[in-house]
Design goal:
The protein folds into two domains: about 140 residues, Immunoglobulin-like (Sandwich), CATH 2.60.40; about 140 residues, Immunoglobulin-like (Sandwich), CATH 2.60.40. The chain is built from two helices and 21 strands. The chain has about 300 residues and is mainly β.
Length: about 300
């Protein structure tokens, strides 16, 4: 339950530092700048993914996240000493939610503050602050997004981390293997690989002598696999099998997510990561899987040589 608060002798809008720019929160009597880039307004699904798509994607985050349980106000100071002309805040939930709060604009005109309903604390959730302003004779409109977390930071779920890191590969063609910590522009450890797919469906063990691996070799842990494809050609059939010498193979249950057009994510359904072995992935579409692509790769298996 939010705690009621005694009114301060100084109006909250007057406590905001004048040298602050961007989105911020008032919590426990302090003003805290938040790391979130302004941009177009996102819907609830777009804010959950928080990805920067398109040919000029930089991997930047548009959603500022923080665990601040005593946030009494959210606000924005626009750049270049602009004069705010319009301001609105809403909560991003399916269908949207008007929180019924009007913004208070500073006497200087470049800062707007949204105090929590009933002057208590903002509840956990994602909020969109859409601001219109004028600077140097030019009109601007942008939205800052803030996620107030319900608890201390936890590890980002593996599929969400992969969508954020690999969104720049969407619309391509190939299998994405590697770290989910960096994107195509700036992989954090240089370990991201995009492997081309080939036509055909026959699961053949890649090593001619039944030992080692003649196919692409992958080292390290593999929690998620990305499949980049044309946005209008989503595969109707996705399968994974572990291959063994002599022709035996075993089906690998998968979780398949497709929240970003042109990018599907695969994760093992019964374990946190794939065990070492030889894997064959198949992506098929059309009547009875007429059009298909596949890849065989070796995870943690020594290469022949």
């Amino acid at each position: 339950m939010a705690r009621s608060r005694e009114p301060s002798a100084t109006p909250p809008i007057e406590t905001v530092p004048t040298d602050l720019t961007g989105v911020f929160a008032l919590a426990d009597g302090a003003t805290l700048g938040l790391a979130g880039e302004p941009g177009p307004a996102l819907d609830d699904a777009g804010a959950w993914l928080d990805i920067d798509q398109g040919p000029d994607a930089t991997g930047r985050s548009h959603v500022a996240s923080a665990y601040l349980p005593d946030t009494t106000a959210l606000g924005v100071t626009v750049p270049d000493g602009g004069a705010i002309t319009a301001a609105a805040i809403g909560q991003l939930v399916p269908g949207g939610h008007d929180v019924g709060v009007q913004g208070e604009i500073s006497p200087v005109g470049s800062t707007v503050l949204f105090q929590a309903p009933d002057r208590l604390a903002w509840r956990p959730g994602v909020y969109a602050l859409t601001i219109g302003w004028t600077a140097a004779g030019t009109d601007h409109v942008a939205t800052w997004h803030v996620q107030l977390l319900p608890g201390p930071f936890q590890r980002v779920p593996r599929l969400l981390a992969a969508f954020r890191a690999w969104s720049g590969f969407a619309g391509g063609n190939g299998l994405i293997l590697g770290s989910t910590k960096g994107g195509p522009a700036e992989p954090t450890d240089g370990s991201i690989r995009v492997l081309p797919l080939s036509s055909g469906k026959a699961p053949v063990y890649p090593a001619a002598n039944g030992l080692g691996c003649d196919g692409p070799a992958v080292d390290g842990r593999l929690e998620v696999i990305g499949f980049a494809h044309a946005p209008d050609r989503w595969p109707e059939i996705v399968t994974a099998r572990t291959l063994f010498a002599g022709g035996r193979s075993v089906d690998v249950p998968l979780i398949v997510a497709s929240d970003v057009a042109g990018l599907a994510l695969l994760a093992p359904a019964t374990s946190a990561e794939l065990s070492p072995g030889v894997y064959r992935l198949l992506f098929a579409s059309g009547p009875e899987g007429l059009s298909s692509q596949s890849l065989t790769f070796c995870l943690g298996v020594a290469a022949n040589g």
